[in-house]
Prior knowledge:
The chain is α/β, with parallel strands linked by helices and 174 residues long. The protein has helices spanning 51-60, 82-90, 111-129, 146-163, 167-173, and strands at residues 42-47, 69-74, 95-100, 136-140. The protein has a four-stranded parallel sheet with strand order 2-1-3-4, with helices on both faces. α3 (111-129) links the parallel β3 and β4 (136-140). The longest helix has 19 residues, at 111-129. It is globular, with a radius of gyration of 16 Å. The model is unreliable at 17-32 (pLDDT under 50).
Amino acid sequence: MHRLQKRDKVGFPAMESDNSKAKEADGNKISPLTGDSWSPQIVGFACNWCTYAGADLAGTSRIKYPANIRIIRLMCTGRIDPMFILKAFLGGVDGVLIGGCHPGDCHYTSGNYKAQRRVILTKEVLKQFGVEPERLQLEWISASEGARFARIVTEFTEMIKSMGPNPLKENRNG
Length: 174
């Protein structure tokens, strides 16, 4: 029998940060906005043919990268609906990393260009919500670039850590 995976309000697999298990003496959870042990939650949308294969290569090559990212495989980054991204941020995710084929190498001809246009427009919408547009990043990572995938995830995680929690998370909890 398969165990059903817990899902959050927007349907993504439920993520627990390292500090979610930490408790104060009175039994309350340590706030991610004030605790030093806060760890960002990152959703990654990955192209099946390039970035997902690059992530797989990083894993099989035992290249270390932060475990903060939850990867959602898409057949093509052109399939990304801006609502996927907005729902992730509204659900409390601290960063969204999108990885697709290099320009000119898309298996569906122009999906990566569609994704690029959508990311540019979605960043403008995020500004209207008071979310820093840098929390959304689009990268081109091929199947043979496992080390590049690990480096980008590490750098993105560090950048999100320096920015702190998603400002919408504070508004949602407050």
